[in-house]
Design brief:
single chain, SH3 type barrels, Alpha-Beta Plaits, five-stranded antiparallel sheet
């Protein structure tokens, strides 16, 4: 308070008015510079397809005039006679806010640039989209870590001792946040090992859907029913994941049940009949057709073939065509399909006496 009172007595009203006008002028200059920079960046972004200009425009909009107020005060203080400690304090505040503002610009630029790059690659390069999310997070953490260290160094804090202390304290923090760190490491493992990427269709336990986003802690999956499934990265990697998008071909196995009343010579022709039906499909890779077993109510034939396409609709279209052709060919050959039946035999007990004047009936 004594320093401020000394500064008040050392300057007159005219000096304070001049200093106030300088501060206001600097703030207006900052506002005008932010406006012009944002407009120019948006104009360049509209003309160019590169995400750099759009990210620059977004970064320019991150300028905070209230945060730059100490800078304006430092410039305005040049018109006043201030004690050395007051002038030094204002200068330190101006440097610190410039560092914080630079960190804000870098944070917004990195986030916007990676988001634009991910949006443009979405659907075409799932691996890049998956990696960009983690890289963007790590880059922004690095920016703020460096900014914090620079601020502390400017305030006279011994950074070397601080880093050593953080190493010890980091162990305690890691133990307290082991679940969060586990998800973070799992996210890193997903990016590096690539068990799946954005756009892949995966099956995890009883959950299935398309991967929409791989975050730092969770992965978001869009199910077939439309809802969004959010799964912890650590839990996800502990499960058995089936990646259907990377399936090069689909193995299809189905059975056909035929009635027991079918003649043996007709049964002998069924495997060749099924083989011809499957091989008639242009893209089906026939494997085998066999008389598999004598079922409870049907003679069971098993057919196996391959579809060289992971798409479910392509597989279902092929299976539908095979089923329709089996139905037509069996009808033409007089081969009946089996359906569950039960035959009940009723007979009288052995110790039951026959009715008078007649024989026993069954």
């Amino acid at each position: 308070m004594k320093l401020l009172f000394a500064a008040w007595r050392a300057n007159g009203a005219t000096e304070f008015l001049i200093a106030g006008a300088v501060v206001l002028g600097v703030l207006l200059a900052f506002a005008l510079l932010r406006f012009v920079t944002a407009r120019l960046s948006r104009a360049l972004a509209a003309r160019s397809a590169a995400p750099l200009h759009a990210a620059m425009a977004d970064a320019a909009s991150a300028t905070r005039l209230w945060l730059l107020l100490p800078v304006a005060l430092y410039i305005g203080a040049g018109a006043l006679e201030l004690p050395g400690r007051v002038h030094e304090a204002i200068g330190n505040a101006a440097v610190i806010v410039l560092m914080l503002q630079a960190g804000g610009w870098a944070h917004r630029f990195i986030g916007s640039w990676f988001e634009l790059k991910s949006t443009r690659r979405e659907g075409a390069d799932g691996e890049a989209v998956t990696a960009m999310g983690l890289i963007s997070f790590l880059a922004r953490v690095t920016v703020w870590t460096i900014t914090l260290l620079l601020v502390l160094n400017h305030l006279g804090v011994n950074i070397t001792a601080l880093v050593a202390g953080l190493g010890i304290g980091g162990v305690a923090v890691a133990l307290a946040l082991q679940n969060v760190l586990g998800d973070l490491l799992a996210s890193l493992a997903i990016v590096l090992d690539k068990p799946f990427v954005v756009g892949d269709f995966i099956v995890v336990d009883n959950l299935r859907g398309e991967v929409e986003r791989v975050g730092i802690k969770t992965t978001r999956i869009r199910s077939l029913d439309g809802e969004q499934l959010i799964v912890s990265n650590a839990d996800l990697l502990k499960s058995r994941i089936r990646n259907l998008r990377r399936m090069t071909r689909r193995r299809v196995e189905f059975t056909v049940g035929i009635a027991y009343e079918t003649a043996p010579e007709k049964l002998a022709r069924v495997p060749a009949l099924l083989r011809g039906i499957v091989q008639a499909q242009p893209r089906a890779g026939f494997d085998r057709a066999h008389f598999k077993q004598l079922g409870d109510s049907a003679l069971v034939f098993e057919v196996v073939y391959f579809v060289p396409d992971p798409d479910t609709n392509a597989y279902m279209d092929m299976q539908q065509a095979i089923n329709l052709e089996i139905f037509r060919r069996f009808a033409a050959e007089g081969i009946e399909f089996a359906y569950p039946t039960q035959t009940v035999h009723v007979r009288a007990p052995a110790n039951l006496a026959p009715p008078a004047g007649g024989a026993a009936t069954t």
